[in-house]
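Fill-in record for TetR family transcriptional regulator.
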Amino acid sequence: MRSKIDPGGQSDAGKGKSESQEPERSFIEKARRAQIIDAAVETIAARGFAKASLAQIAERAGISKGVISYHFAGKSELIERLVEQVYEGIGAFVGARLDGQSGGAVWLRVYIESVAEYMLGHQTQLAALGEIFSHFRTADGAPRYGIASSEPIYVALEKVFLEGQQSGEFRAFDVRVMAVSLQAGIDNMFAYWSAHPEHDLTAYARELAGIFEHATRADSRARD
């Protein structure tokens, strides 16, 4: 899973206007859009990205394809809003657990373990995101989500690492390398769990957090 959550709890998924930036919608319109997005998540997770047509999504939602076209310009916009909505949920969950945490090492562990905790209860979303990140392309054929689109989270993680270094809690290291490595570790944690669902995700996250605690802490044991 290519995570796109700002460590401060903000989502950076999707381009263009966010739901909060769009003109105020009626309660019914918002509920209908949420229903369509939920149906898209379920359809993509069950059938794969390529086979998840608007017609299939409409059938799962119990509506006509025209209703989807009324609320979304096409499949691309629907998918972008889907990713945005999923990550807003993750961001709220993780942000609530990070709120009030002090100290880089504690923050780092809570961040890693809370993302895993969220996904334990949202496996269908994880499956849908995996399909989207693997197969969704821009008009020129480039991956819509990938390393380039993860720049905001690298910047946010760099800030956390820099603050830890300035406080003396973290050792000296290249914060960009550590940020990219941490995010890759989280992405691969979910990729492995998706392929091996019998694996204990909570234990994996706990071990991953320990690895980065040892990699970042400012003491002789981390350097040896």
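KEY FINDING: Residues 10-21 have pLDDT under 50 and may be disordered.
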